[in-house]
Amino acid sequence: MSEAIQDDSVIQTPLQKVWEEIAEHGLEGCIAELDAYGYTVIPPDLATPDGLCERLLEAVLDVAESRNGIRPDLETGSTHKGFKGRFHALAGGKGDSPIGDLMQSLLFEGQVFEEALMNPVLLTMASYLCGYSVVLSSMGCFMKGPNVSTFALHSDTPLPSPLTPHALVCNLTYVLTEFNRENGSTAFVPGSHKWCRSPEGAETKVGDGGNPKAVAVECPAGSLLCWHGNTWHGAFNRTAPGLRVSIPVYMSRPYIRTQEGLVGEIPEEMLERNPPRFAILAQQGIAYGYKSQDDSVARGMRAFKYTKAYTDEQDALTIGVQSLYS
After folding, report:
1. Are the C-beta atoms of residues 142 and 246 closer than 8 Å to each other?
2. Which domains are delineated in the chain?
3. What pLDDT is attached to residue 320?
4. What is the pLDDT of residues 132-152, one digit of tens each?
5. DSSP strands (E only) in 45-168
6. What is the pLDDT of residues 34-51, one digit of tens each?
7. What is the pTM of this model?
8. Which long-range contacts (CB under 8 A, 24 or more apart) does 309-316 make?
9. Diameter of the chain measured on Cα atoms
């Protein structure tokens, strides 16, 4: 190693910083697996310490009861068996919903969801894939009971093929109940992130007679399932009783249009109780999308305020201001 790199006064690049975080959290093996296969499973002891999994599960059950008027049945899945809802069209309108019920916009439903977003392990993986300027695109919850429809393979990158080799988006999913094929787990095609295109035609089918390269991920509750935005994935149908519950934290680079529009929508008390990076993750550092010159000035001033606070906290000499816009 050169003398210049060993000198502590030399500017540390974002790549050096993220590798320090990877080593700090013991994620080297997960990063290697992510690079090779396009997805990885971070075990519960690293992903959800201090009972985070249990607290998230209880919180989403509360949200579901509040929104739907009935508490989900974790044991039998009777509340969601054959669930159609608004997403049965994903199965061509001829079956039940292949994803079950999707509850959207969870960030405002309790401080445990803020904690889930600020999880250092989650942020390390997101920063590795999409840079330190990464923002939250959406946070929701899938609840799937016994069903017959599989979810077609697709990529999360919201662009037509060919796709960029580097991740423009990434998915970090909290697995709140055990994942396996019988439980309707996520299906992945290992290595598909390297193909830089979305699946087409027969390649998209999951299950019997479907894409032979698709595999069911298996992991215990409390795991964090992470994948590159290009990775082909879908889901098997659930044949076992009970519910499959997960919270996908979908992240993107700041120049990709997000699913949730959070600019200017985060309460001040939420921003004040979290570190400066929370504001960046919650889109408060984004200035574009203005409706007039006055709005452009206001959005620009707000974005500068939160971006400066974040770079001051991190030390601009450490990650470099430019890295926020990469």
Report:
1. yes
2. 13-260 (2.60.120.620)
3. 42
4. 999 999 999 999 999 999 999
5. 101-103, 135-139, 141-144, 151-154
6. 999 999 999 999 999 999
7. 0.92
8. 309/276, 309/279, 310/276, 310/277, 310/279, 310/280, 310/285, 312/276, 313/275, 313/276, 313/277, 314/132, 314/277
9. 66
